[in-house]
Amino acid sequence: MRTKITGALLDPAQLTILAALGREPATANQLAEALPELSRPTLYRRLKQLERAGLIRVSATRPVRGALERTWALAVDAPARRDVPAPEEPSLDAAARVFTAFVAAPLCRESPGRSARALIRADASRIYVTPAELAALRVEFERLLRSYRAPAPGRRAVNVSLFTTPA
After folding, report:
1. Residue 32 lies in a domain
2. In CATH, what number is assigned to the domain containing residue 82?
3. For 2-51, how does the pLDDT look when each residue is reduced to its tens digit (9 = 90+)?
4. Whose CA is closest to 75, among 8, 135, 139?
């Protein structure tokens, strides 16, 4: 069962907002200025979703031109919530989506108008190797990349990484 928290963590826009609020509390206007890749309707919708998930809260309000301006902050007690069901064992695909969203959030800020999907590709496969085979795989990966390190006409720079995690 996908919880509201899990859904928030799988959404690059919500991760971007959480990262910004992790640096310091902010109003919706401040977030809109800091995150120009998010339209205002998307920003407001995501703030409400994050609030419903219990990941952010209103830390202050002040009257501005006849309305209340909210300052949003991370909900410090979010991990201790007891009413949120424990997530199911994440699938390899879900883990890859979370990782991609985490990596894509800062890249999307630097490339407004481009989606995370256009910027990042994450391929995940479960393999079975001994420690020696894993070491050999890393050496082979490094050897393969060596031939692509020099700039050449028609080539563009991309970052390629090999991450290994326990299964």
Report:
1. yes
2. 1.10.10.10
3. 456 666 666 778 888 888 888 889 999 999 998 888 899 999 999 998 89
4. 8
Q: Residue 82: which domain range?
A: 4-87
Count: domains in the chain: 1
Query: How many beta carbons lie within 10 A of that of residue 13, not counting itself?
Result: 22
Average pLDDT of the segment spanning 137-166: 84
Give the C-alpha separation, 17 to 33, whole Å: 12
> In DSSP terms, which residues pair with 68 in a beta bridge?
63
Is residue 142 in some structural domain? no
Asked whether the whole model's pTM tops 0.70, one would answer no
In a domain, 60, yes or no: yes
